[in-house]
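Task card 7
Instruction: Convert sequence to structure tokens.
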Amino acid sequence: MHAASPARRRFADRLAAEVSLAAPSWPDPRPFDTVYFGGGTPSQLAPEELARVLDACRTHLSLDSPWVFLEANPEDVTPETCASWRGLGVRTLSLGVQSFSDEALRFLGRRHSGGQAKGAVEAALRAGFDTVSLDLIFGLRGQTAEDWRRDLATAVSLGPQHVSCYQLTIHPRTRFGVQAKHGRLSELPEEEQAVLFDLTHRFLADAGFAAYEVSNFARGPAHQSRHNRKYWDHTPYLGLGPSAHSLATDASSSARRWWNERGTPRWEKRLAAGERPIEAQEILGPRDLAEEALLLGLRTTAGIDLDGLRARCGVDVLAANEALVERLVDEGRVIVRADPEGGRRLVPTLSGLAVADGLAAAFDLSLSN
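Output:
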């Protein structure tokens, strides 16, 4: 268990305060059915601090038996912390394993070892969470297909219900970005990344983990992330904490997205003054929502509900992109199939998922008359 910390207590108090400030102006009448603690190191908060935030949500927001998710660092996972989290109602525990290789973990700057990662997964599974999920990263400098296969095999052998596999991306103004700028780090060549991507999907499929998004694999629909899917289909969501984003939709096929102050000190200062810590916002019109729906939908194995998109955003994807869709079908990148309900879906194949972002950029999203 973490020792009491004034900084962590203050952070939890500020989160609870933000709930009370945000609730009165939340425009969607539907109750929340998920609560996700993530985006940082929520497992470093003591259970009573997490409980304080959950209590604030129950007091000020409409909740409907929410499925509670918690992201955790392997070094924070013990039988005692697992029991406490289960007592709070956590049903999905997502572990930031990243790798089971000590060398890879040192490269990534992680504090845990491969042995600690295995122990954390085993402790989480013994605790009886509905879903235990592992996050892994591939595409590290010098990583071979056999290295990555070994990580995947270790993950599968432990018996989790969900695995997320993310390709290493180098962003500016990060430790990796600085190293890359000075020539001390580079991403794997595209052809090697493609080999690892294909290996990921085929290995996990053979092991019983069905892909439902580019990076996410589950042992059956019950273990898919019902929270993350909201980001992909524009279901309204309320984000709390530094850098958190929120989205609210309206009846006019538009939406409003806003985001919080990125720096924790600024976020805390505004809350201490009784202000909502919103940094900025944007209005998304039908064209914006259609572009996002296409980009996000082509990253999922469910694909895009073409008739639903036309009804919501006024975009007829097939009519505006007939030649492109025919070419992508011929290339084996997408298929167009009928839904059981009679609608049509544009669905990426495995080779389409591998280049999903590029596929989306090729489409013309002219609004229908």
